[in-house]
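A.,

Following up on our hallway conversation. Structure tokens first:
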């Protein structure tokens, strides 16, 4: 008879082969890491049976472990490089940080919830001893280990916290997170909305201002409160949208 560890290992392999690879995740480091890191050990005992289900798993305190496919696509969008310095904001029980460490990154995991910190503190030393687990307000990031090559906001948010922009490496730093529309599903609640998709942000600096541009979207998230910069980028964004619309109309009439 198979042991519980063997059953979980089999479920882990099926998660990668049936949920993640069919959804266009081809990064071999991500696939290998998610096939290796034991997701069930980062969950409270009462929900370990859901470890490899195709869904978000409740962690308590209105927090969730992200659905495997969505998390895998987030990591693939990051285009991870060996030995990159990564900050995980809202690290929860530490699973995402452990996967990033298995991908060859140097990881700082930031969490503020005591119950989730207790689980992470018990599991990470065994499963990912190189991860540095720290505690503090999530929106403030973790300045002492900056600059980061990548900041992963684990879970879904409606906006990127402003303090994070100043903690990424200039020119090459990026911020990664899943956004939800108002009324959709998010990390802090149990609503059911549209499926979440990853967004990668390129941090751009203009003098003492910094803001993030979504790589595959005309939307712009401003990461400072400088009104003049906000207005300039907002106008530029709308001008871009109008230009694309007018070009499309002109093309249709020309045809």
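Then the amino acids I'd put at each of the 255 positions:
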């Amino acid at each position: 008879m198979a042991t519980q560890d063997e059953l979980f290992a089999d479920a882990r392999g099926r998660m990668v082969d049936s949920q993640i690879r069919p959804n266009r995740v081809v990064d071999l480091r991500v696939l290998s890491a998610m096939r290796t890191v034991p997701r069930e050990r980062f969950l409270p005992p009462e929900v370990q049976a859901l470890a490899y289900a195709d869904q978000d798993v409740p962690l308590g305190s209105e927090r969730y472990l992200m659905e495997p496919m969505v998390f895998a696509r987030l990591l693939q969008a990051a285009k991870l490089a060996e030995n990159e310095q990564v900050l995980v904001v809202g690290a929860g029980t530490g699973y995402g940080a452990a996967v990033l460490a298995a991908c060859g990154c140097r990881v700082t995991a930031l969490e503020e919830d005591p119950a989730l910190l207790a689980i992470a503190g018990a599991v990470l030393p065994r499963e990912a001893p190189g991860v540095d687990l720290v505690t503090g307000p999530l929106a403030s990031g973790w300045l002492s280990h900056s600059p980061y090559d990548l900041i992963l906001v684990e879970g879904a948010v409606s906006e990127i916290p402003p303090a994070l922009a100043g903690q990424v490496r200039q020119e090459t730093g990026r911020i990664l997170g899943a956004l939800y529309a108002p009324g959709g599903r998010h990390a802090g609640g149990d609503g059911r909305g549209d499926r979440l998709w990853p967004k990668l942000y390129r941090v751009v600096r203009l003098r003492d201002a910094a803001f993030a541009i979504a790589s595959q979207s005309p939307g712009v998230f401003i990461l400072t409160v400088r009104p003049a910069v906000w207005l300039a980028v907002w106008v530029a964004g709308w001008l871009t949208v109008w230009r694309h619309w007018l070009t499309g109309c002109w093309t249709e009439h020309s045809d």
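The mean pLDDT is 78. Curious whether your intuition agrees with the design.

B.
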